[in-house]
Amino acid sequence: MGLTDIFKTKKLKDELTKLQETNTKLSNKILNLESELTTANKKAAEKLSIKEMVPFELDALIEEKHVAFLKQESTLNEQLSNLQEKIEAVNKIKRLANQEIDNLETKKASLKNEIIDLSEQIEIESFGIYKPRYEFTTSLNYKEKLDDVRKSQKKEIKNKVAFNITFPMTFNNSQAKGRTMQNKNGKQLLRTFNGECEAAISKVTYSNFDGVEKRINKSFEQLNKLNEKNGVELSYSYLELKLSELHLAFEYAEKKQQEKEELREQRQREREEKALQKEISIKRKKIDKDLSHFEKMYAELEEKLQLTQDENDQLKLKNDLEGLQQKIDSASSEKSDLDYREANATAGYVYIISNIGSFGKDVFKIGVTRRLEPMDRIDELGSASVPFKFDVHALIFSYDAYKLESELHERFAKNRINKVNSRKEYFKITIDDVKEALKKYSDVTIDFKEVPEAIEYRDSLKVN
């Protein structure tokens, strides 16, 4: 609960106390009037009794007193009615005050819960980890929300609630001129604040976010302090809209970058798929050509065998036919493997590679490729983006390569070098960790090499 709410609650309680005191006084006055009425009734009764005993000339005097009593009674009834109305008004104010107190207590409890909920985030952010305020799935959602926030800012300015007039001023003894002057000051205040916010938000990055947020809050406080004597101040609702704009602008930029990386990754997969299809096509043509050649030779040898009578020639031809059959079977098997690789999008190679010249010792990349020749993909990784080529420690063929890659990533999740971007597949582990992890996969084909050659790196060290 804010300081303003506390003062408001205290003021209401003071007013309620005063009203209760007034109620008590009025109640006492009613009792006194009722007592006087009772006494008057007794006196009237006594006078009526005297009237029966005294001579006729007292009737006029008694009548006069009775009329005066009736007037006094009417006056008392009117006062009593007024007091009852006042009591009802006091009770109504009391009910409203109690309702306001309940609302403030509810708000107080809500604020306490917010403080508890934010405590963990404050602790996290003290370590420089940004927790998103919004969780939209696409950059378009962020852009739409950002547009809504900016429209809300314009609406507050249009409805004249972006700044407040804290106390009215006069100019040349004119309240109207004074208000016009304060409105102009408020517009200038908004223009200055908007300019500072725009300059800050346009330069926000992951590393300076906290500083930009503090800069906006500080600008808000300083501008309000400078304009305190002018009777104008920026509203807290407008500040909150600016801070929402800051969060949205930052998260919008981050989401766009994330989508770019996802698109780049998707395009890489598409390039991998195209390269695979090209490899399959080339290899299939070669196998089909070889099969056609082997089958043609086989048919020719069979025909020759039927025409040959010499036993030695027959034996040689039979051996040649057996060798050709083995080649035909091998080529047919390769063709079947190609058909399987083409039909199954999960079959491929998981590779575990290192680059000590670029990243140092005990840093491994764990990735996957569907290429028929996995080394083509690994050579691409070491082409221009790093100063040295990658060394291969393990090539693992699997019919569900993406699942295998995911299992290895999960196993070494705590060892990720980039802990906020799972698309970066580098891990700080040892070769022994790799060997231990691969023991689980005895049912798959693994080519393993423990020591990296790093030829170019080692030769470069010699040159130095």
Question: How would you characterize the overall build of this protein?
Answer:
By secondary structure, this protein is an alpha+beta fold. It has four domains: 123 residues; 121 residues; 73 residues; 116 residues. Helix content is 71%, strand content 8%. The chain has twelve helices and seven strands. Strands 6-4-3-5-7 form a five-stranded antiparallel beta sheet. A two-stranded antiparallel ribbon has the order 1-2. Helix 1 runs antiparallel to helix 2 and helix 3 runs antiparallel to helix 6. The two termini are 68 Å apart. About 3% of the residues have low confidence.
Annotate the secondary structure layout.
Layout: H1 3-53, H2 58-125, H3 139-158, E1 163-165, H4 175-201, H5 209-226, E2 232-234, H6 236-307, H7 311-343, E3 348-354, H8 356-359, E4 363-369, H9 374-381, E5 391-398, H10 401-411, E6 426-428, H11 431-438, E7 445-448, H12 455-463
Antiparallel strand pairs: 1-2, 3-4, 3-5, 4-6, 5-7
Protein name: Bacteriophage T5 Orf172 DNA-binding domain-containing protein
Keywords: Coiled coil
Domain Bacteriophage T5 Orf172 DNA-binding: 358-441
In short:
This protein is of the alpha+beta class. It is built from twelve helices and seven strands.
Number of helices: 12
DSSP strand content? 5-15%
Overall pLDDT: 82
The helical percent reads over 70%
Structural class: alpha+beta
- Strands ordered across the widest β-sheet: 6-4-3-5-7
User: SSE order, as H and E?
Assistant: HHHEHHEHHEHEHEHEHEH
- Largest sheet, if any? 5 strands, antiparallel
